[in-house]
Amino acid sequence: MNKILIANRGEIALRIIRTAKKMQISTVLVYAPRDAGAAYLLEADKTVLLEGQSLGETYLNSSKIIAAAKSVGADAIHPGYGFLSENAAFAHACRKEGLIFIGPTPEAMEAMGNKIEARRTALTVGVPVTPGITGTVPELLAQYPSVGFPLLIKAAAGGGGKGMRMVQQENELKNALEATAREAHNYFDDDTVYIEKYIEAPRHVEVQVLGDQHGTVIHLFERECSLQRRHQKIIEEAPSPTLTPEVREQICKAAVQLAAAIDYQSAGTLEFLVAPDHSFYFLEMNTRIQVEHPVTELTTGIDIVEQQIRIARGEALSLQQKDIRQSGHAIECRIYAEDPEQQFLPAPGTIRFYKEPYGENIRIDGMMLQQGMAITGDFDPMIAKLITWGTNREAARIKMIEALQQYFIYGIKNNIAFLLGLLHHADFVENKISTKYIDIHLASLLLQFERRKKSEDIRIPMTAALVFSLSQKDKKPASIWEETGYWRLVNQLSLNVDEEKSTIRLGRQVLPTLDFEYHQQWYAATLQPINSEQFTLILDQQTYPVHIVAIAPGIYIVRYNGFDYTITRNDILQLTSDALPPPPAATAAAGNIRAPMPGKVIKIAVETGSAVKTGDLLLIVEAMKMENNILSPKDGVVTAIDVGEGDKVDTTTTLIHIEDPLAGS
To answer: How would residue 624 be classed by pLDDT, with cut points 50, 70 and 90?
Structure first.
């Protein structure tokens, strides 16, 4: 194997490139036009453009990818995860064209990639599964009483949390089945769905396996992935803090037994639901590398991508089960471009500042993001993975908090603050979680996080930003307004700390030392730089570590104690209002419903003249591979629909007009 074509994008493409380089294997990376200019493309030895706009024309086009591989003389294709990674037809096509598919055989994918077939296989080898039924949407609507509520609808070809919905009552079932089938078709090109019994308060535990072409199957122990939102994982860890040694041995044995039953040849993951009594049920098998594989790598010392490549080359596993040990504890946090305060709505946009953490026992699997790069709504919202290791779970947790506090992404909404809140929370520390924990507790979690932030002393971020802004006079101003805005002789300034307005009276200035009056009390402050963003604030002889980023004239973000504070100098904003970027789209005017995020309209559920009530479904907008229901904010009548199915929209687009029922009378 001399040259690998990577049929993927982003962080997993870069991850594969780095292992291939270590093994002295040349790499070729395909890319769609929307990814042109991405920094990670430069890491490949060669790149090939896939012409087209849709996923079907690019990353899901198997014929184009195979043609690209043959045109550059690649002898193998690594599919990463998602896209074509679990597509048996693609694996068959690679085999037919004489290309090595770095993954399992298509036969194994057919046996386990389809969730319905996987359940049947598990039953034949004695591995327990949850009760469930399969069939067409009409058949499932007729037969669902045999399963009962609550139930889970899943895409048969699904994975990564896509194509999955929990339903609690009958009147939700038809729409949920149709939406899951539609999402499954859009993402996996297969609209087959099935229903299974929903297990209350389960844990999600998965076992990493490796199988070679010589009949050997081993496991690399388990990971726990219980903290999820929208059925997608956001925090994973290894080993599971839930399993007893006896259950760990049983679940790993079941995983190996199931993989061996289909002669599995590659890296794969067997996923299980673990009930509160530690009974476990086979959920599905992901016949590919997993997003969360780094936690297993950090606790076993085994490069799983390297093992995939060696297995695909026909090498026998050099690892023996008795020699594999778990060492310490690893935690992975998925960094998403999304807004936790808005039910995790995807949040594409342009990055205005980006800086990753670094240090011992901190690992980043990212895509080399940079300031000024756009995060589009065309792909999954995960933009990076942050992984930490410690000698035990608590050490890994503390290291993760340290790393998250040093991770800066400004310009787009993201989940870093939310992850920090979870890592601090007593329920995480004490492992009192389940797969439904975030869904059930989201409102209270957000409230607790906000209370923690409000309990901090806002004088610290305010003072840091104040001294920082005044200290900028050593820099050459870009224009006269900037010079007068920053340095005109005033003794009183108006500042906003988030939404709270304050007036500061300036005293002696020997910058970076400043005397100032705030709330009728005088303070002395000094700001000492450590690097370009990190500072030590000395406020009345007490020291505080802070990070400061200027994102626009007069606008500063200060991170203190894990929280971000936006501080604005109103005197500068008054002079620069024309030069500042426009604010986010305002709330829609009464009667006009706007898109909450950029995306594509995939279903319109009402017609002009329809009467609607508060909470009724109006339409569905797909963004970052997620369906987002747009609901009516009030009772009324639909007077106009300004978009059609398939239209692309952004936050300035008016979708639907709703008037009060009596407005026209």
So the answer is: low
